[in-house]
Description:
This protein has 2 helices and 2 strands, in the order βαβα. The chain is mainly α.
Amino acid sequence: MRVSKSDRSQILDLQKDELLKAGVLSEQIYQDFDSGKNDYRSGLATCLKALRASTHC
């Protein structure tokens, strides 16, 4: 999940609700509060790391 304002004036609730409704486990949901133009987003980096780890099983 991502919103573009780092000041947290935007909320992720609707995105999270839809992901949970689609069957995504809460521990598999990652979040960022950064603009998409930023090269590094910690939530995305953590998600990609988890995906890489799961493909080595």
